Amino acid sequence: YFSFKKTSIHGKGVRIQKSNGVRCLFSVISDFDMTLTRFAHNGMRVPTTHSKHPISCKYLYLLTPYFVGPLQMKELLNTYYPIEIDAGRSTEEKLPLMVEWWTKVHELLIDQRIRKDMLARAVKESSAMLREGYKVFFDHLAEHHIPLLIFSAGVGDVLEEVIRQNHVFHPNINIISNYMDFDHTGVLQAFKGQLIHTFNKRQGALSHAAHLRQVQDRPNVLLLGDSLGDLTMADGVTDTHNILTIGFLNDQVEERKESYINSFDIVLVKDETMDIPNAIVKYVTSSRYSK
Length: 291
Hints:
By secondary structure, the chain is α/β, with parallel strands linked by helices. It has two domains: about 10-40 and about 130-285, HAD superfamily/HAD-like (Rossmann fold); about 45-125, Pyrimidine 5'-nucleotidase (UMPH-1), N-terminal domain (DNA polymerase, domain 1), CATH 1.10.150.340. Helix content is about 35%, strand content about 20%. The strands form three sheets. The protein has a seven-stranded mixed beta sheet with strand order 1-11-10-9-2-5-6, sandwiched between helices. Strand 7 and strand 8 form a beta hairpin. Helix 1 (about 70-85) packs antiparallel against helix 2. The two termini are about 20 Å apart. Mean pLDDT is about 80; it is low at about 55-70.
């Protein structure tokens, strides 16, 4: 029985049963924005790779509504974000509105004529932050050859740059996200493939079979997310026997706490660290228990 003492934790009792070869049968599937990245730091919202609080600098307008950026983006945020986190609306009600939101955001990003050669500089000059303890998390998974599938409704090009600049982009990482399509001059002209938003990650998983190969035949999954829509990220993985879900509840806590506790095995409330995922990963991979 695995117990926790942090006051920010809610949820069910968690029992982790270990067996021979568990490390070979274990994988992690995680959302990125506000899951692997911080939600806030020193009382200020941290930028994300997409439409809520995106990365920005004077060289590249990846639109940040709380600081600078087009008025249309802030209007979209104020219109659609309350819908996304509204505990009183069903997923079915939210789906078409999320498609509408993401589509409009992508159109605005394309209008900015974003240059590929400015991405690295934009991320470097932004205040994007991974959660405290991220290096232990990424490095430990890589050391034990545990696949990490990052499933994000953000912008994959920016996401990759954030991980790369934090020096934790290891070979065990695979990413499903919205990727930019640049023209021959290096200017954003479109987005590639199927649109991925908060509530269609199941369909996204099923349509990215090649990305899922790394985590197939691993029946034990640790799933991390900050939205109820993230709970479907493992749906494309075959023969999963045990899925331990951790939900980061960052915003509108009282309104959403009940639904999160009913849906995730563990709920971390306003916790900006990777302490609990790190403790679980270290426990599962410890030689003391996996012999």
